[in-house]
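User: Round two. Same drill as before: sequence, then structure, for each protein.

Assistant: Same drill it is. First protein:
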Amino acid sequence: MWSRLGAYAPHWLTDLLAERAIFEYWSHEACFLPIEDYPVYRSLMLAGKTRSNAYARRWLQENQEIATALIDHIRANGTVRSADFTRNDGATGGWWNWKVEKMALEMLFIVGDLMIDRRENFQRVYDLRERVLPEWNDDRAPDVAAAQRTLTLAAAQALGAAPTRWLADYFRTSKAETARIVAALAAEGALMTARVEGWRDPVYIHPDNLPLARTAAAGALRSTVTTLLSPFDPVVWDRWRTLELFGFDYRIECYTPAPKRRYGYFTLPILHRGALVGRLDPKAHRKDGVFEVRALYLEPGVEPDDELATNLATAVRACAAWHGAPDVIIRFCDPPGFGGLVMHTLRT
């Protein structure tokens, strides 16, 4: 959101969640979603077609006693957090080494029996679906075909011009089902078909995007934005699309053991005037007011000129200020001289 809106107040999200204007669920990743989209996702939950749904149902079936006891506990005592349960199996925590109550909470969340009531210090607070959305009735859920059609059209609208494989990844839907839906939408004129020079497969364009597509085809669409992207940003979360479209090979490395990392723990792609030109690995030391850029890399062939340095410095300064860490330090840069250009601009 920061990449698009600038310095928004993070409490907006927790406020909107508490107001039931948005809800949390798995979309391309764990996401905040408009409450207007809940019927579509509920339809897919009921049909077992949401992300990890088959695994969640199998886990809950194999652990019925735990799941039932947890539901009964929440019904009798109110909302819970994972932190409310003490681990007693002797194991230590890790990225995915969850205690059994955390597993049960997440599985019940995936199938839709639990929802996120609110956030407390970033932690999810779970409650029964019927208490979070007391007015909801499953009879209002559209049929699965309509839900899948809605998501496919939304993906096409978001991506601009996209082959089927990109449309499927946008909401992590089945490639085979997406291909079938796309063909039907194109046949009825709900999606336009086009060709991109040098690409084998056709691309599909939402009718609302036709004016932009024509402008792009005429070579008259120019980006002026320079910003930093989250690793989960829609521009880069589909790694293969990012490589195909931008020639940018990107992988988030926070799950990679430190000795095997190439660029850093949580590198942010740099979007500059329609191109992905590099990445930087930041750490905000909020208590000290320092925004540390542990490493900054430009892509091969990118010109490290004054214009890029000025635009990047502006983006970094804005991000650092938003994090409450306005003093920027660059520890390492490749190419080396470019870091000095950025720092010079930051100091002026």
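Second protein:
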Amino acid sequence: MTTNGGFEPVFCTVVPPYVLDKLAQHDDPALSGPAQRTLVRDSELRARRRVTAEFRLAAAPTAKAPSDQPLRTIYDAEHRTELPGTKVRDEGDDPGRDATVNRAYSGLGATFDLYLKAYRRHSIDGDGLPLDATVHYDEGYNNAFWNGEQMVFGDGDGEIFTDFTNSIDVIGHELTHGVTQYTANLTYYGQPGALNESMSDVFGSLIKQYSLGQTAAEADWLIGAGLLAPGVTGKALRSMKAPGTAYDDDVLGKDPQPATMDDYVRTGRDNGGVHINSGIPNHAFYLVATALGGHAWEKAGQIWYDVLTGGELKERAFFTDFAKLTVKAARERYGDGGDEFQAVEKAWEQVGVRIL
């Protein structure tokens, strides 16, 4: 259940629809075909998610204390669309020959580790929820998603996108949609939806940094590095350090993310710009983390986690609401005169989000 009393699992993909829309219009069917099929599949899954969510009952609470170890199961869809597919690896099994299966297994474990060791959270629901993932979904599927219950990874088309298990931050990003689902349950539209997406980028990046032992200064602050095929002019899907610079490609177009409110995009597409305008809170987090230095999950990440799970963040929160809560959380945890409080205040000022 969420802190706001609701339970609204949503269908969240890592590749924004505007990227696939651009691909779908290309003259080359090798590029447009997989994108068109992915858009149709995503639309079907999104509609199915809305219908099934209405009838889904929350699981009964377990009386057993959650374990400090993950419970992972990896399935193979064998390029079909029935979920979950054939079970290919259980918790504790040795790595097999399929590198995609092994990467998915490791990524689920890295996500579990960050939440447990940094924030004492047992899995994404806080109560030891088993982590399930399906790989090799569909033919040339250009996405990865959280459907409210499990992770699903496509193999990409090989022309624009590679295997979606290649980026550990993508795995962390999608699973963090589950954390948000079980806590603040941010509405997936407009600014609340952009905050939802930003939370996933923030903790997806922190999961990568934690697994690599990186400081804020050492991190690349890219989301989806390794997903773009060699012929694509770009580094990743998004950049938290410099929103709007992740790619600039003849086929994909230019990364549309703004870094500040001066360039906020008003649109009815992409659920009101959830993947576009998430660049603004993403950049604010980057500014806080790099101002404080050290490991970003320890202070900046703790402040963001406190807000996400603290019970005061409303489902329809706007950027200003979230910013005010981060300032409050920094004050309560670190004090008025600390570097943390000042870094948070300054970051929101720099991105143009008013907190007064």
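Confidence is low (pLDDT under 50) at residues 1-7, 49-63.

User: Perfect.
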